[in-house]
C-alpha cells in the first residue's frame, strides 16, 4: 500500500512554507519504508495528480486559514477535507480541491485522506516561518508521525540510529 506524504506551499511566502518545512524535517530526521513517498509539492497543482492517483493513503500538510490563533493545529479527515476546502481553509484549496476532484472522477482517489495543518500568521513574501508556526512545528511533526504510525508505517529516527 503506497502512502504519499505531501507538503504544500511556497517557502518564499512566510508561513505558506509550512508543508515544505515538515517534509524537510521528515526527510532529514527519519527513514521510511519504500512504499512511503515524501513529496514537497510546493505549488505544483495538477502536476501532482499522478502521485496522488498512485497512492492508497494521502497525508497532506499545509498552512490553513481558519480565523483561529496563529499556530493552532488542525486535523481533517475523509469527507471533512472537501467540505473544509470548499470553505477556503487552505491557501492551496483550489489546487488541492481540483486535484482531489480529478482523482475521484478518474476513480483513483486515495482510500484514506488526512490533512494536518496549522493556522498561519505571516502569509506574504518572506523566507521562514513566523514565531507562532516555529513554536507549533514540533507538535505538528509529532502529529504527522503519529498518524503514519497509526497507519502501521514503521518509522526509524535517524537520531536514534546515530546514538546506537
Going across the major beta sheet, what is the strand order?
A: 3-1-4-6-5
> Which fold name corresponds to the CATH topology?
Rossmann fold
- The overall strand count is 7
Helix count from the secondary structure assignment: 6
* CATH architectural designation: 3-Layer(aba) Sandwich
Helix content: 25-40%
Strand % is 15-25%
CATH class: Alpha Beta
Amino-to-carboxy terminus distance: 30 Å
Using only C-alpha atoms, the radius of gyration works out to: 15 Å
The structure class reads alpha/beta
Order of helices and strands: EHEEHEEHHEHEH
Mean pLDDT score: 89
- Which oligomeric form is depicted? single chain
Total domain count: 1
Shape: globular
Major β-sheet, in short? 5 strands, mixed
Poorly predicted ranges (pLDDT <50, ≥5 residues)? none
Amino acid at each position: 500500500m503506497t502512502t504519499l506524504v505531501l507538503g504544500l506551499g511556497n517557502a518564499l511566502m512566510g508561513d505558506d512554507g509550512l508543508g515544505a518545512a515538515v517534509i524537510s524535517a521528515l526527510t532529514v530526521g527519519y527513514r521510511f519504508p519504500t512504499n512511503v513517498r515524501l513529496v514537497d509539492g510546493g505549488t505544483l497543482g495538477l502536476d501532482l495528480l499522478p502521485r496522488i492517483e498512485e497512492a492508497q493513503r494521502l497525508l497532506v500538510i499545509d498552512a490553513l486559514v481558519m480565523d483561529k490563533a496563529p499556530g493552532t493545529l488542525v486535523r481533517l479527515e475523509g469527507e471533512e477535507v472537501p467540505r473544509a476546502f470548499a470553505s477556503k481553509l487552505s491557501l492551496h484549496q483550489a489546487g488541492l480541491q481540483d486535484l482531489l476532484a480529478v482523482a475521484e472522477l478518474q476513480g483513483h482517489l486515495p482510500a484514506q485522506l488526512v490533512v494536518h495543518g496549522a493556522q498561519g500568521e505571516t502569509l506574504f513574501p518572506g523566507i521562514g516561518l513566523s514565531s507562532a508556526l516555529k513554536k507549533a512545528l514540533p507538535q505538528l511533526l509529532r502529529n504527522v508521525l503519529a498518524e503514519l504510525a497509526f497507519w502501521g508505517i514503521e518509522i526509524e529516527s535517524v537520531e536514534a540510529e546515530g546514538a546506537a
